[in-house]
Specification:
The complex is a heterodimer of chains A (about 300) and B (about 325).
Chain A (H helix, E strand, L loop, with lengths): L1 H39 L2 H5 L2 E2 L4 E2 L2 H32 L5 H15 L2 H24 L11 H26 L2 H9 L4 H12 L1 H17 L27 H11 L3 H40 L1
Antiparallel strand pairs in A: 1-2
Helix pairs in contact in A: 1-11, 3-6, 3-9, 4-6, 5-6, 6-9, 7-8, 9-11, 10-11
Chain B lengths: L11 H40 L1 H4 L1 H4 L4 H5 L15 E2 L6 E2 L2 H32 L2 H16 L2 H20 L7 H26 L2 H9 L4 H30 L2 H6 L17 H8 L8 H39 L1
The chains are: A mainly alpha (about 300), B mainly alpha (about 325).
C-alpha cells in the first residue's frame, strides 16, 4: 500500500515537472529579452527615426506603421467578426447545413498557416483587387496593384477573424436567455433585442476579441512579408497605397540581414522588447477582461 | 447607442418598418456568415490558381512537373547521384520538393517530441492534481506563451538558443534541426496543452469517483481512467499542434539555417516548405516557373493543414458527443 502511494507521488511529481519546465522556458525567454532589451530602451528610442544603417536612432516609424496596420485591420475585421458571431449565437439553426459549413469554415480559417495568408493577400488583394482598381480608376497606373498598407490590413483582418468570432460568440452565449425573453416580452423585435440588449451586455467580449486580434496582428510577420511591409522608408505612410514599416518585420530583417549583428544587437533587443511588451500588454488586458466576464457569467447563473 | 422609450400601442406603419428592418438585418448577418465560407474558398482558389500552371502550363512543364517535384531525378554524376535537389535559382533550375518535405518533417518531429509530452503531462497536472488557484493561474500563463509572436521566438532561437544548443551538444552547425525544433516546440505547447486540458476536463466527475471508489490511487485514476476517456481529445491536440508546426514560418525561417539538404541528420541546417516560400517569393520573377512552384508549395501547406484541422475537430466533436451522452 505504501509503495503504491510512493509510486503515485513520483508520477504526480513528473506532471508537475512538466509544468515547471514550461514555466522555466517562458521565464528564460522573457527574462533574457527583458534583461538585454531594457538597457537600450529610452524615450528617444521610441520617438526617433532609425539612423546610421539601423545601428543608432529609434524605431518610431515601425511603431507608427504597426499601430496604423492594426487600426485599419480592426475597422474591417471586428464588425465582420461580430456579425458572424451574432449569426452563430442568435440566428443559427444548429441542425442546418449552412451552420455546419460556416462553423467548419471558421475552424479551418483558424488553422490556415500564416504564410498562406500572405500568398492569398498577394494573389487576391494585391494582384486581383488592386489590379482591378488600378485599371478602373488609375488608367492602369500602378497604385493599388502593389504591396500596400491597405492590403496588409485586409490580409490581417482575415487572419484574425476567427479570434474575434470565438471571443464575441462566447460573450454572446454568456448573456442570460432571460434578458432576451424579457426584451421580447416588452415588444422588442429580434434585431432590437440583439443590438440593444444582447450586444451591449456582451461588450466585454467584443473588447476581448478586438484586443486579442490586435495583439495577434501586431506580432504576425509572415502574412505581411509580400503585401506591404518595408524594411526602411524615409517617410511615414500617408496614403492607403503606401508601404509601411512594422515592428515584427523590423525584428526579422534586423536579426537575419544585418551586415554587423553585434553592432545592431542592442537595438534589436530593444525592438523585440517593445514588440513583446506591446503584445503582452494587449494579451494581459484581454485575459483580465475575459476572466472578469467568466466570473460574472458564472455568478449570473 | 441611444434608445428612446415609446409608450402605448405601436402604430401599424411603424410596425411594418420595424419588420422590414429586422428582415434586412437578418439578411446582412447571414451574408456576413456566408463571407466566412467565401473567404476560405477564396484562399484556396487564389493560392491554387497560381499553383495550377505547375500541372497545366506547357511553359512551366518544360522546367518542372509533378514527377520532377516528387520523384528521384538524375542530377549529380553517376558516382555521386543527387536524386533530390532544390535549387530553383541556377543554370538548370531544380525543383525537387523532397528536401523541403523532409526538412519540414524533421523540424516538426523534434518540435512534437518536445511539445507533446510537456503539453499532455502539464494538462494532466492542471486537471487532476493541481489545487484550484494553481490551475487558474496556469491558464493565463499558457495563454501568454501562446501570445509570444513567432518572430520573437525565432529571434530568441537565432540569437540565444542556437549558441546554447551548439555549445551543449558540441555541434558543427550553429543553426540546425534541433534548435529550430525546440523553438517550434515552444510555439506548439500551448495548443496541445489547451486542447488536452479541455478534453480531460470534459471527462465526467463520476468516472473519477467510480475509480476512487474501487480503490484506485490518484495517479491510477488519472492514467488509466481519465486519460483513456479523453484520449481522442488529446490525440486531436497532437494533430492540431502538428498542423501548426508544419505551417509555422518565422521560427524556422530564422533559426533553421535554410539549407535544402536531403538527409536524416538532425544536426545539420534544414530548409522547410514554409520557409522556402517566405524566403524566395520576394525575389522571384512574377509569373515564372519558380513563382508558380512556390504557390504550389503554399497550396500543399493549405491542403495539409486543412485536412489535419478537419481531422482534429472531427475527433473532438465526436468525443464531446460521446462523453456528454455517457453522462446522461
Amino acid at each position: 500500500m505504501n509503495r503504491r502511494f510512493a509510486i503515485d507521488g513520483v508520477f504526480i511529481l513528473l506532471t508537475g515537472l512538466a509544468v515547471l519546465m514550461i514555466v522555466a522556458m517562458v521565464a528564460v525567454v522573457l527574462g533574457n529579452i527583458a534583461y538585454h532589451g531594457w538597457e537600450r530602451l529610452t524615450w528617444q528610442f521610441l520617438t526617433d527615426q532609425p539612423r546610421a544603417g539601423m545601428t543608432e536612432g529609434g524605431i518610431f516609424p515601425a511603431i507608427f506603421g504597426t499601430v496604423l496596420l492594426v487600426l485599419l485591420m480592426t475597422l474591417v475585421g471586428v464588425p465582420l467578426g461580430v456579425c458572424v458571431a451574432i449569426y452563430f449565437s442568435e440566428y443559427a439553426d444548429r441542425t442546418s447545413r449552412f451552420y455546419r459549413w460556416t462553423r467548419q469554415a471558421v475552424n479551418n480559417l483558424a488553422g490556415v498557416p500564416s504564410i498562406v495568408f500572405g500568398l492569398f493577400g498577394l494573389g487576391f488583394f494585391v494582384q486581383f483587387v488592386g489590379g482591378a482598381i488600378d485599371d478602373a480608376a488609375y488608367a492602369g497606373r500602378l497604385t493599388f496593384g502593389q504591396p500596400a498598407l491597405i492590403w496588409a490590413a485586409l490580409t490581417m483582418a482575415v487572419l484574425t477573424l476567427p479570434v474575434v468570432i470565438v471571443s464575441v460568440e462566447e460573450a454572446l452565449r454568456a448573456v442570460p436567455q432571460s434578458y432576451r425573453d424579457a426584451s421580447a416580452a416588452l415588444g422588442a423585435t429580434r434585431t432590437q433585442t440583439i443590438f440593444r440588449v444582447v450586444l451591449p451586455n456582451a461588450l466585454a467580449g467584443v473588447l476581448t476579441g478586438t484586443i486579442l486580434a490586435v495583439g495577434r496582428g501586431a506580432g504576425e510577420v509572415a502574412p505581411i512579408l509580400f503585401v506591404g511591409a518595408a524594411y526602411f522608408l524615409p517617410h511615414l505612410p500617408t496614403h492607403l497605397s503606401d508601404q509601411f514599416m512594422h515592428l515584427g518585420y523590423h525584428v526579422f530583417v534586423l536579426s537575419t540581414q544585418s551586415p554587423d549583428v553585434e553592432a545592431t544587437k542592442p537595438i534589436l533587443y530593444a525592438t523585440v522588447f517593445v514588440l513583446l511588451g506591446l503584445t503582452f500588454l494587449l494579451n494581459l488586458v484581454a485575459i483580465a477582461i475575459r476572466t472578469r466576464l467568466r466570473l460574472a457569467a458564472a455568478g449570473a447563473r | 447607442m441611444s434608445s428612446t422609450a415609446t409608450t402605448g400601442p405601436v402604430p401599424a406603419d411603424n410596425l411594418a418598418r420595424r419588420r422590414r428592418r429586422d428582415w434586412l438585418v437578418e439578411r446582412l448577418i447571414y451574408v456576413a456568415a456566408l463571407l466566412a465560407i467565401l473567404v476560405i474558398a477564396l484562399i484556396f482558389v487564389f493560392v491554387g490558381k497560381e499553383a495550377l500552371p505547375v500541372l497545366t502550363s506547357a511553359e512551366v512543364q518544360k522546367e518542372t512537373d509533378l514527377s520532377k517535384l516528387f520523384l528521384p531525378q538524375q542530377y549529380g554524376t553517376p558516382e555521386v547521384p543527387l536524386p533530390y535537389v532544390w535549387q530553383p535559382v541556377s543554370e538548370v533550375p531544380k525543383y525537387s520538393l523532397m528536401p523541403l518535405l523532409l526538412g519540414t518533417l524533421k523540424v516538426t518531429l523534434v518540435a512534437m517530441l518536445l511539445a507533446a509530452p510537456l503539453g499532455i503531462l502539464a494538462a494532466i497536472f492542471a486537471t487532476e492534481f493541481a489545487p484550484n488557484w494553481l490551475r487558474e493561474s496556469l491558464k493565463p500563463l499558457i495563454e501568454l506563451l501562446a501570445g509570444i509572436p513567432s518572430v520573437v521566438l525565432g529571434f530568441f532561437a537565432l540569437i540565444v538558443l542556437a549558441t546554447w544548443v551548439q555549445d551543449f551538444l558540441d555541434l558543427d552547425y550553429r543553426l540546425n534541426v534541433i534548435t529550430a525544433g525546440i523553438a517550434l516546440g515552444l510555439a506548439v505547447v500551448p495548443i496541445i496543452f489547451t486542447i488536452s486540458e479541455d478534453a480531460l476536463t470534459a471527462v465526467p466527475r463520476s468516472y473519477r469517483n467510480a475509480s476512487a471508489a474501487l480503490g484506485a490511487s490518484r495517479w491510477q485514476t488519472a492514467w488509466r481512467v481519465v486519460l483513456p476517456a479523453a484520449l481522442p481529445g488529446v490525440f486531436a491536440g497532437i494533430v492540431l499542434g502538428f498542423g501548426r508546426a508544419v505551417g509555422e514560418t518565422m521560427i524556422v525561417l530564422m533559426a533553421s539555417g535554410n539549407a535544402a539538404i536531403t538527409s536524416w541528420n538532425f544536426t545539420e541546417p534544414v530548409r522547410t516548405l514554409s520557409a522556402s516560400v517566405a524566403a524566395e517569393l520576394a525575389e522571384v520573377v512574377f509569373g515564372d516557373t519558380h513563382y508558380h512552384v512556390l504557390f504550389f508549395i503554399g497550396t500543399l501547406l493549405f491542403v495539409i493543414t486543412f485536412v489535419l484541422n478537419w481531422l482534429g475537430t472531427a475527433v473532438v466533436n465526436r468525443m464531446r458527443r460521446r462523453l456528454t451522452g455517457a453522462e446522461r
